[in-house]
Amino acid sequence: MSDVRGPGRPVGRRTLIATTAALALGMTLGACTDGDRGDDQLRTDVADGAPASMVLPGEDAAQTALTLSALLFAASDVVVVASSETAESLAAVSSTARLPLLIGTDQAVLDEIARLGAGTVVTAAGTDLTGLGEDLEVVEIDPADATATLPEVVADPTPTTVRLLVDPDQPAPAAAIARAQIEAAGGTVGEVSGGDPRRSSDTVAAAKEAAGEDPATGVIALGGSFGATEQWIAALQAAVTVPELPGGGQVAFPHRRMVAAYGTPGAPALGILGEQGLEESIARVQQLAAEYQEFSAEPVIPAFEVITTIASAEAGRDGDYSRPIDPGELRPWVDAAGEAGVYVVLDLQPGTTDFLTQAKLYEELLKEPHVGLALDPEWRLKPGQRHMVQIGSVSAQEVNETSQWLADLTAEHSLPQKVFILHQFNLSMISDRQDVDTSRPELAITLHADGHGNPGDKLATWNALQRDLPEGIFMAWKNFYDEDSPTFTPQETYELEPKPWFVSYQ
Fold it and tell me: Band of the pLDDT at 358, cuts 50, 70, 90?
């Protein structure tokens, strides 16, 4: 091959096996321009500016190394070349010595060496470099020898601002190589469990640290769990700008579970939420959540499920057999719950009106990051029907119109994912259930099995409701203190299959 180092430098392959040196894997850092560099001075320059945010698949370590070398380094007189067997051991050399790392001896590697302008290759002793030609100087080292001598290299004084995020829960063969390349260019490395920067306070913090002021630039994610690049950039943007949910993070499920007190403030006949005052209700639901925590690998968050429009036996002023609570009356409960780390779900019992009309009455409350929405079709009447005479029902179309509005509201106001609950204990309660739209990532759609009775009846309902359930819907369960015989304990509740993500108590 031709001399890629340029004129004025010695040509010819020379193998050195170094065993001792005063500086372990050392190099010289400092500002040095082309004008004051001598012909015998070796240099590594990082690329100007950070690359745009992207996702690298991570299955192919050699391709990962090649891609990152091209992205991060403008030039380097010295390059580390490894085989697949020595790649991880030489990654530490690359990182410490601030040198690009390549794997293999194919044409793509040869082309990258030429682009870098490298004339010296550092490799593990005994590595077969056939294919790289005879014009490169080769320095063979024992990567395990901390005293091994490397060529003295002057590094670019302005390191890259790029940050690498890896998923420790998803082993990637390329992870060590990617870490080395980023660190060699002066960048930094962080971890995002599960590949979703929105899942917890820790991952949100890692994303914010990585993104800095511009989440669209300079953050590279490694591994398929991060999704496609477009999806990743959107998630990163959300992690930086969207408020967090109670318990941390911005995605409701599956990164937490919830246990809720159900009812209406000041109305003990409607559920346990009305059996005590605000501060006492917060303490009660916090205790309920604590009783479940030992049975859950995920954090269990306390919640209120507030009956916000109450089914009525009388037609009322609007003639719809539903009595809405003034949003101002609920505001103190919503605000206090948010301050205490309690999630709030507004439950609608609309009578003869539609769910979307009623949901819009509570738009200001639903703009809060810790407030979701529940639709209770049992109380959705057709003209001529009456509560407690007929079981109500809702069409998939009406559900989708409501969920679409809520998802748009969530996106418009940069809110975290909202819990969107559909109550059901009879298959007729949601017609055309297979047509329920679960595609909006702004919502965690949850089916709440809220039948009561003995354990056999409740389990039969639980299993029946899961048949032909659209993908992407989480399951929820209700325990009744008075109507169940007996009421399931926390352990019995969490022994259900699947384990419910949301549990409420009435």
Answer: very high
Q: Are 84 and 95 in contact (CB under 8 A)?
A: no
Task: Return d(Cα 191, Cα 280) in angstroms, integer.
Answer: 39
Q: What are phi and psi of 250, to 5 degrees?
A: -125, 5
Rounded Cα gap, residues 74 and 44, in angstroms: 8
Distances from the Cα of 400 to the Cα of 355, 362, 374, 420, angstroms: 10, 18, 13, 11
Q: What is the pLDDT of residue 32?
A: 35
- What secondary structure letter does DSSP report for 484? S
Coil/strand/helix, residue 276: coil
Which three-class secondary structure state does DSSP give residue 266? Answer: coil
Residue 326 CA to chain centroid, in angstroms? 36
Domains of the chain (ranges; CATH) run: 15-241 (no CATH), 257-505 (3.20.20)
Give the closest residue to 15 by CA, choosing from 119, 118, 175, 138: 138
Look at residues 67, 441, 105 and name the one whose alpha carbon lies nearest to residue 222. Answer: 67
Residues 182 and 139: their CA atoms lie apart, in Å, by 23
Q: How far is CA 207 from the centre of its chain?
A: 10
Query: SS3 string of 343-390?
Result: EEEEEECCECCCHHHHHHCCHHHHCCCCEEEEECHHHECCCCCCCCCC
At CA 494, angle to CA 491 and CA 500, rounded to 5? 155
In eight-state DSSP terms, residue 391 is -
Distance CA 407, CA 403 (A): 6
Place of tokens 């009356």: 329
| Nearest-angstrom CA–CA distance, 133 and 485 | 81
What is the DSSP secondary structure assignment for residue 47, as one 8-state letter?
P
Residues in the chain: 506
Of 121, 140, 157, 136, which is closest to residue 37 (Cα–Cα)? 157
- Calculate the CA 298 to chain-centre distance: 14
- For 213-224, how does the pLDDT look when each residue is reduced to its tens digit (9 = 90+)? 666 668 999 998
Residue scoring higher pLDDT (401 or 49): 401
pLDDT computed for residue 1 by the predictor: 32
Q: What is the DSSP letter of 274?
A: G
Q: Token match 């929820």: residue?
A: 476
The string of DSSP codes covering 52-74 is BPEEE--S-HHHHHHHHHHHHEE
Is residue 139 within 8 Å of 99, Cβ to Cβ? no
Query: Please, which residues bridge with residue 408 across strands?
Result: none
Are residues 342 and 348 in contact, defined by beta-carbon separation less than 8 angstroms? no
Phi-psi region of 249 (alpha: psi -120 to 50; beta: other; left: phi over 0): left
Phi then psi dihedrals of residue 427, to 5 deg: -60, -25
Which burial class, exposed, middle or buried, applies to 12 when counting CB atoms under 10 A from its CB (0-12, 13-18, 19+)?
A: exposed
